Amino acid sequence: LETESQLGGALERDELRLVYQPIVDVHTERTIGFEALVRWQHPSRGLLAPAEFMSIAEETGMILAIGEWVLREALMQLQLWRMDVPGARDLFVAVNLSARQVQDPEFPAAVARTLAQTRAEPAALHLELTESMVMSRSDVAVQNVTALRELGVRVSLDDFGTGYSSLSYLHQIPAHTVKIDRSFVAAIGEDNASATSIIGAIVGLGRALELDVVGEGVETPQQVEELRRLGVRYAQGYLWSPPIAPAAAQEWIREKA
Ligand code: G
Ligand code: G
Ligand code: MN
Ligand code: NA
């Protein structure tokens, strides 16, 4: 309860932060974009990860205001980098959505407004959603995703392969990118033939449906070697970098974008 009332004031007190994890092309090893991840600089408990406050944010509905802040902050940051940092011109930023945002009929209009206000290029914004946020075809979520696509925004299916009906989900949601869940990547090298087969099958789907494929949670050179062999083009993970603060990301762009 205390956390709940404190979270209520976190936006006004400017306590939220974004950290950025590079997403790389596994052939060139160049950074092509960043996933933005929210943190709460709590007045007494230090820097909190989403696991410690996002469920409260969801339950109370504060997630809508937080989500708007995240979107605006990520796009403002991207614009600063694109204007000022050599190598940043073609970067994208990927923002995670919550179920409430995806189900909100006003969401596409809010995204359009934020894009206009920040003058960000729609294609430089990737919105990540998960299967559980988009349950049925009649859902407003499907209409929202279609409207977002029409704005020129790019849609990523996060944690792909872990839902109970990934194939029907892929059929319902017109996405640009699938992000292979890190559990499949972690299983590489653990003598797990099925993980390799599943990743290979996702790559095949990606080719057939013209989707970009990103491997998540890459921690070892062996894992990225196997992803390359399987035809996965993009990846992120601790092998390259954990999520980092904006100043460190800016240095990263100078060197690696
Ligand atoms: O950064 P970390 O690995 O702790 O993130 C844990 C989870 O929190 C991830 O599943 C991620 O998708 C989610 N998350 C991180 N940032 C945001 C955000 O800005 N909005 C939403 N809705 N979820 C986020
Ligand atoms: O669910 P989503 O894919 O949005 O989650 C992103 C989360 O994964 C972030 O909390 C981030 O800190 C975490 N993450 C990023 N790279 C790695 C990695 O290489 N290994 C592990 N275990 N977690 C990672
Ligand atoms: Mn994500
Ligand atoms: Na994921």
UniProtKB/TrEMBL annotation:
Protein name listed in UniProt: EAL domain-containing protein
Source organism of the structure: Ruicaihuangia caeni
UniProt domain EAL: residue ranges: 1-257
Domain of life: Bacteria
